[in-house]
């Protein structure tokens, strides 16, 4: 039976529209880092190689399941860890909207636990040859452990996320926790190209201490 993250890993990917505490273990990801406004057309250039590699792994193993413990699965959703540049932090004013041109990000797509680093790097080299127009050379295969976090489902525009983060921060305070930094993770459950802005579903998450 196919492993579907929406059904099998609800605690990680399908939170409720209210804050909750979660401990996120180590997972493997294809990652790519960049800087700039996500509304600019070039932003799609960072997303494309992640999907190309993720589907190359899925389809390659489906045809030839050479890895131990392999099982069929649904490709995981796109995620992004967001911050602002060091220069922007020097002049940061919480009363002013963030200049999106000063955003820095690491986008990623999780890979199943059975995918080894050796196999992932082999796929990167193969796709790099097949699709030289993509930013494959910027992609890394990394293991990331988030640990103790607070997360919540945000519904609506990305521009309104501050309201949800405020709710999450108030919840953290009540639980005797503190937000580790302004760095945060977004998990995109909706395709913004197909879903109305007011119906977009995004998991918001930040680390606590």
UniProtKB/TrEMBL annotation:
GyrI-like small molecule binding domain location: 18-202
Do you know which Pfam families this protein is assigned to?
Answer: GyrI-like
Protein name (Swiss-Prot/TrEMBL)? GyrI-like domain-containing protein
Organism listed in the record = Polaribacter haliotis
């Amino acid at each position: 039976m196919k492993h579907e993250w929406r059904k099998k890993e609800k605690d990680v990917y399908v939170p409720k529209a209210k804050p909750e505490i979660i401990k996120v273990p180590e997972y493997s990801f294809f990652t790519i880092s960049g800087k700039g406004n996500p509304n600019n057309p070039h932003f799609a250039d960072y997303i494309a190689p992640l999907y190309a590699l993720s589907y190359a792994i899925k389809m390659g193993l489906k045809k030839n399941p050479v890895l131990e413990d392999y099982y069929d699965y649904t490709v995981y959703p796109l995620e992004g860890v967001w911050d602002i540049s060091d220069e922007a932090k020097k002049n940061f004013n919480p009363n002013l909207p963030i200049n999106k041109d000063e955003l820095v990000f690491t986008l990623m797509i999780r890979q199943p636990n059975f995918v080894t680093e050796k196999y992932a790097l082999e796929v990167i080299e193969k796709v790099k040859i097949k699709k030289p127009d993509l930013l494959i050379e910027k992609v890394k295969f990394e293991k990331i452990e988030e640990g103790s976090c607070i997360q919540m489902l945000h519904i609506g525009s990305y521009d309104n996320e501050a309201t949800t983060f405020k709710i999450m921060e108030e919840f953290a305070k009540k639980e005797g926790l503190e937000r580790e930094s302004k760095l945060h993770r977004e998990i995109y459950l909706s395709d913004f190209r197909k879903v109305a802005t007011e119906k977009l579903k995004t998991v918001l998450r930040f680390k606590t201490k």
